[in-house]
Amino acid sequence: MQIAMLVYDRFTALDVVGPYEILSRLPDARVDFVAEQAGPVRTDTGFLALTADKALDEVPRPDIVVVSGGPGTMDQLKNPALLDWLRAADATTTWTTSVCSGSLLLAAAGLLQGRRATSHWVALDLLKEFGAEPTGERVVTDGKYVTAAGVSSGIDMALTLSGRIAGDEHAQAVQLLTEYDPQPPYDAGSPQKAPAHLVEEFRAGSRFSLT
Q: Which of 6, 100, 107, 149 is catalytic?
């Protein structure tokens, strides 16, 4: 089972590292980090680089695609190399997935037309521009498409997918071994719960805009 994890300049590290920790434990899984060109790819902070061992054209038929999100998403929405690869890979995938604003790339490639999907809350409404139906859910499954909301929800998406592929007990075992038992010190992880001034501040400063 080949899992292709797509990265690009200024992606968010946890968007792929979180799902990687879960999905790499699937039976017979092989994980490849892929980018338009092989080599180091910088995350959104600039402090960390992840090595893409393979270029897109070296991974034409993955079984699973995981598309990361991050501030760099907007620069990729009209990148023909990336969008063409997503369309071609999707033609034969068993599962096509995304984390955070990565769903915008799936939508821009025409893969979420008429489908329910989610994204980071500051980018959620942009899904409409590409014909998708945005929802505020943390993980959304519509056919073979599984989209996750912002950053940390990629772990939930990967556990959901693991359960579908390898069964509930396998997913539970991975959750136990990774000790994924969230008990955050604050209850501000969604715009519905966070202080209103923080929500407005981040909305106003968001880079996720098509204009």
A: 100
